[in-house]
Design brief:
The complex is a heterodimer of chains A (450) and B (476). Chain A has 9 helices and 20 strands. Chain A is α+β, with helices and mostly antiparallel strands. In chain A, β1 and β2 form a beta hairpin. In chain A, α3 packs parallel to α4. Chain A is globular and about 70 Å long. Chain B is α+β, with helices and mostly antiparallel strands and 476 residues long. Chain B has 2 domains: 230 residues, PmbA/TldD fold (2-Layer Sandwich); 234 residues, no CATH class. In chain B, strands 1, 2, 3, 4, 5, 6 and 7 form a 7-stranded mixed β-sheet that branches. In chain B, strands 9, 10, 11, 14, 20, 21 and 22 form a 7-stranded mixed β-sheet that branches. Classes of the chains: A alpha+beta (450), B alpha+beta (476). At the A-B interface, β2, β3, α2, β6 and β16 of A face β1, β2, β3, α4 and β5 of B. β2 of chain A pairs parallel with β3 of chain B.
């Protein structure tokens, strides 16, 4: 059972730090219980179950900061953490922008944001195993070419996070999470492929049917069999939602306040300018009830909110915490994020691309010769320059239809051009995590192959 | 150091009898094997940005993981509290993977003899912060001094000291003290108001702090990061399509890690889901290629005295003259398949189940002169530095991203090109290796390998090699 009362403990640790000589302090406590059941070829393979907790402290002495963290909650352990953080303030530099949020920025969204569902805590182990087994079984039964499997996994997580600072903020919220995923393996002749599908939700009731997940995973795997490498050429590229989400991830990295103030983003200094096709609108909203990127306050005690990042192609806002906002002469957008200790970074809430009007089938129907990308590999996106080059696999589009599978190719361009050449945005949109995008069509990219 | 002198005995009062009792409890439901992994991790991090030391942190994480194996099944539970009650509770939870009466004989632990591949008296984590903070300040100054076009520098220094103890129902009791330190530098350059370019460098190992004062200094890494950023200012568009690729020595060995290393991990092969499954004894690379995974190289980032299952690490031949020789085993895979253990069972922390992983993966040197290799190429790409890579072990397709590369035109290295990914297929790519240089170099100690959500430090290495055919993902 996940505890309450950590907000008081965090506030007490802040008081200890102030008594020990800090001029400001902030404390984060995180507790979690994880459970995981894996089934492979219909047999139980792994069960994992445990709980853990840890605490982090950041202090200021004037404009110098120091941080420490521990998983030792004994009185000695906590005292040692406080001493450690204060010791470190002596070796950091004076940073004119360091400090806690302005008191007027602090706060928490009231009411129930639907982040915790007690149906997750009551789940029987046997039910979890059986759910994973049903999903994998459905995948294995789909087609005789599904000859193997990396298994199915049912995972749950119950967590609690508390935060307090020396400006009077103290808050805590609980969250729950469950996920079911299946990884079938298909074989036909010499060709062997795997793919996956999954469902995630804050509550058991929000999960999709295990049989549906298994069947979709199998279909995604089967359609990759017999993939070929195409010749190098320039064509329209269609990103299905799973790969479109990675483009949204690159947009996030480029509007991240830290990258912007250091001038290491291709979107730095471009507020108010057209940076993308008029079809692109990007929103970040950490206050949407029940979703995966939702919280009542960010990791420095500022309420989360809706921020329009890109509106019809025009860059409207960066995503900021208190520090990066001060560096840029702006206001925080409530996007502070951190593990436990250290200075806050920037994280997304629920970041999404607003959907368009046409279905993926309609978008594909308009393309004579193009590449429908279902998987991307590697780390080939450079946010400083915008250079983009990644490994890809998917299906070739011929005369408006998905014709044959393609793999071992690259797609390349620049993120700047990809955003400006965004030709169409699909109507297919759903949250399976804290970032969501519909099908996207980029007018032209280089496909590298034979 | 012996168990009795370890932090687990000294500070937490754990005795050998306690360990034997916990193991018996773990096997009380009929499990066939159990182990305990105790970890006490101290870590610190210091970073500089805009010539301001903005952040310094230190912390402690400790806990114990209890694993029970029954046939091919694994039960796992962990606790971040080392009290007897909590460890026994974790043992009972893990025990439930098995359903039956206790089968174990009485367990008696024998402490294994210890060697020391990283004899570090004072770990960097135990040195005064005033000394460590100088490393990032020096890196910042040196990168800015390298060239007036450098306008932004970030440096970070990270270290940790991991004290681990493994006790298993096989009677193994091992203790290790694993120091690790790394310095990273990133520099941004700009000229004439044009777009910025970034350069990266870093390194370290299981070393004392003096490594950064005498062997690889902050100035060394700073100059390397600044140099790469300056070079990239003149980069032209990368080519696209199949061509001859020459890899420079050292970190480009990440090719081996992605193209063959992961595909040879025994868990995938036991399940038959790797592109290398069932290929032992077959030709998977050109006869010029011999690929080794060696966890025993002194002071290296990927080295370990014992793996995270208490087994001593060793030198494993993966590919010998192009023939696939063996897989990397963990305890579960070797128990299930009867293969000999290879000391490759690793885990990120006490909260993670061990898996077969790489340590330091490299290709042995050949006979070619590196300059002769470049001269032999009429048109191609010369890659000297890379970002990360990734592999789909089932199809065998892998990708890795070149962060510094040059065109080869008429046997000469000419213009730098913009970032591009290289893609290939594991069991095929190394068949096109036509020349192997005599200049084997290991990387500087920066690698982190991710698998199923677990990160562990690794090393790679390679001599200069020529690959006749590989797909390059540029735009030109």
């Amino acid at each position: 059972m996940i505890g309450n009362g950590y907000a008081d403990l965090a506030a007490g640790i802040v008081e200890q730090a102030m008594a020990a000589g800090a001029t400001d302090a902030e404390c984060t406590i995180s507790e979690g219980e994880e459970f995981s059941a894996n089934v492979r070829l219909r047999e139980l393979e792994t069960l994992k179950e445990a709980g853990s907790r840890a605490v982090g402290l950041r202090i200021l002495q004037g404009r110098h900061t120091g941080s420490a963290h521990t998983s030792d909650f004994s009185a000695d352990g906590l005292r040692h953490m406080v001493r450690s953080a204060i010791e470190l303030a002596a070796i950091t530099s004076e940073d004119p922008h360091a400090g806690l949020p302005d008191p007027s920025d602090l706060g928490s969204i009231p009411g129930d944001l639907g982040l915790y569902s007690s149906d997750v805590e009551r789940l029987e182990t046997e039910l979890k195993i059986d759910t994973a087994r049903r999903a994998e079984d459905a995948a294995l039964r789909t087609d005789p070419r599904i000859t193997n499997s990396e298994g199915a996994s049912f995972d749950t997580y119950l967590g609690s996070r508390a935060f307090a600072n020396s400006r009077g903020f103290a808050g805590q919220y609980r969250s729950s999470y469950c996920s079911l995923s299946v990884v079938p393996v298909a074989r036909q002749g010499e060709s062997m492929e795997r793919d996956y599908w999954y469902s995630t939700a804050r509550s058991l009731a929000g999960m999709e049917q295990p049989e549906d997940i298994g069947r979709i995973a199998a279909q995604r795997t089967l359609r990759r069999l017999g993939a070929v490498k195409v010749e190098t050429r320039k064509v329209p590229v269609v990103f299905e939602p799973r790969t479109a989400r990675t483009l949204l991830g690159h947009i996030f990295e480029a509007v991240h306040g830290g990258a912007v103030y250091r001038n290491e983003s291709f979107l730095a200094g471009r507020l108010g300018e057209r940076v993308a096709s008029g079809k692109l609108t990007v929103i970040d909203d950490g206050s949407m009830p029940g979703l995966f990127g939702t919280s009542p306050f960010d990791d420095e005690g500022v309420p989360t909110r809706r921020t329009v990042v890109i509106e019809n192609g025009v860059l409207r806002s960066y995503l900021l915490n208190t520090y990066t906002a001060r560096k840029l002469g702006l206001k925080t957008t409530g996007n502070a994020s951190r593990g436990l200790a250290g200075n806050a970074g920037v994280g997304n809430g629920n970041l999404y691309i607003e959907k368009g009007a046409r279905s993926p089938e309609q978008l594909i129907a308009g393309i004579q010769d193009g590449f429908y990308v279902t998987e991307l590999m590697g780390f080939g996106a450079n946010i400083v320059t915008g250079d983009y080059s990644r490994g890809a696999s998917g299906l070739w589009i011929r005369n408006g239809e998905l014709a044959f599978p393609v793999s071992e190719v690259t797609i390349a361009g620049t993120l700047q051009q990809m955003l400006l050449n965004l030709e169409a945005v699909g109507a297919d949109f759903e949250f399976r995590g804290s970032m969501a995008a519909p099908t996207l069509v980029v007018a032209e990219m280089t496909v590298g192959g034979r | 150091m012996h168990f009795s002198e370890s932090i687990f005995a000294q500070r937490f009062g754990i005795t050998q009898q306690d360990l034997e009792r916990y193991l018996s409890e773990a096997l009380s439901q009929g499990g066939t094997y159990a182990d305990l992994y105790f970890e006490y991790l101290s870590s610190s991090a210091i970073s500089i940005d805009e010539s301001i030391v903005k952040s310094a942190s230190q912390g402690v994480s400790l806990g114990v993981g209890v694993r029970v194996i029954a046939g091919e099944r694994t039960g796992y539970a962990y606790s971040d509290d080392l009290s007897a009650d909590k460890i026994r509770k974790a043992a009972r939870v893990a025990a439930h993977i098995a359903k039956g009466p206790a089968t174990a004989e009485k367990i008696s632990l024998n402490e294994s003899r210890r060697r020391d591949l990283y004899p570090v008296g004072t770990a960097p984590t135990e040195t005064p912060f005033t000394e460590r903070v100088e490393l990032v300040k020096r890196a910042d100054r040196a990168a800015r001094a390298y060239d007036a076009r450098i306008f932004q520098v970030q440096a970070s220094y990270l270290d940790n000291l991991r004290q681990v103890m493994v006790a298993s129902s096989d009677g193994v009791l091992s203790f290790d003290r694993q120091p690790l330190a790394r310095l990273n530098v990133s520099a941004l350059a700009r000229q004439n108001g044009g777009p910025p370019q970034r350069g990266h460098a870093g390194g370290g190992g299981r070393v004392e702090l003096s490594f950064f004062l005498h062997e690889k200094t902050p100035e060394h890494f700073a100059a390397e990061a600044a140099r790469e950023a300056i070079v990239m200012l003149d980069a032209v568009d990368a080519p696209a399509g199949e061509m001859t690729v020459v890899l420079g020595p050292g970190w480009p060995g990440v090719l081996l890690h992605e193209a063959v290393g992961h595909g040879l991990e025994a868990d995938f092969n036991r399940k038959g889901v790797s592109a290398f499954s069932g290929r032992i004894g077959q030709q998977v690379a050109s006869p010029l290629c011999t690929v080794i995974d060696d966890g025993t190289i002194a002071n290296r980032r990927g080295s370990l005295n014992v793996d995270d299952e208490g087994h001593v690490t060793q030198r494993n031949v993966l590919i010998e003259n192009g023939i696939l020789r063996g897989y990397l085993q963990d305890k579960l895979s070797s128990r299930v398949t009867g293969a000999a253990e290879t000391g490759s069972g690793r885990r990120e922390s006490y909260a993670h189940i061990p898996m077969p992983r790489m340590t330091n993966t490299f290709m042995l040197a050949g006979e070619s002169d590196p300059e002769e290799i470049i001269r032999s190429v009429p048109k191609g790409l010369y890659c000297v530095n890379f970002g990360g890579g990734q592999v789909d072990i089932t199809s065998g397709n892998f990708v890795f991203s070149a962060s510094e590369s040059y065109l080869i035109e008429d046997g000469k290295v000419t213009r730098p090109v913009r970032n591009a990914s290289l893609i290939g297929n594991g069991p095929e790519a190394l068949k096109y290796v036509s020349m192997v240089g005599n200049d084997l170099k290991l990387d500087e100690g920066i690698g982190m390998c991710g698998k199923e959500g677990q990160n562990v430090p690794v090393g790679v290495g390679i001599p200069t090699i020529r690959i006749d055919r590989m797909t390059v993902g540029g735009t030109a």
